[in-house]
User: What shape does this take?
Amino acid sequence: MGTNREKMIKGEPYLSMDPELEDDRQRAQRLMIRYNASEPGDYEGMHALLKDFVAEIGENTVLLPRLQIEYGYNTRIGSNSFMNYDGIILDCGPVTIGDNVMMGPRVQLLTALHPIEDHEARIAGWETTAPIVIGDRVWFGGGVIVCPGVTVGDNTVVGAGSVVTRDLPDHVLAVGNPARIVRKI
Assistant: This one.
C-alpha cells in the first residue's frame, strides 16, 4: 500500500490533500518565500538554500526568483543550468534537469495528472504523476510548458510559448502548441 507520499512519487493514484503532503507543501512554500526574498545577486546563498531543499543541485546552477517548487524532494538539477524569472516546478513526480540547461522566464515543468473521465475521483482529490526528464544542453524559450511524462533529449531547443506534450529526441528544434519538431539541429 504505502503512504500517499510514496504513492505520489511512484506515480500511483494518491490523495493530494493528504495531511503529510500538505505539510510538505507548506514547508516548501516557506522555503520558497525565503528563497524569493534573497538579496539580488546572492547566488551563493540561493544555491545553499536549494542544496538543502531539492534532492540534488549541481554547481553553478542559478534559478532566479520568483521560483516556485512544490515539494523539492523530487527535483534533481545538474550543473551550470539556469532558469530565468518566474519558473514553476510542480514536482509531485520526479523532475530531472540535466547539465547546462537554459530556461527562459515563466517556464513550467508539471508532473501532476488528474482523472479525466472519473469526475468523482477528481473532485475527491485523486491524482497520479508522471516524471519529466530534461537532457543536457537543452534550451527552453520563455513560457515553455512541459507536460507530465515528457522526456526532452540532449541538445534540443524548444521555442518560446511551446507546450511539450510528447517526448522530443536529441538534437531537434521544436515549436508550437503542441510542440512539433521543425528540424534537426
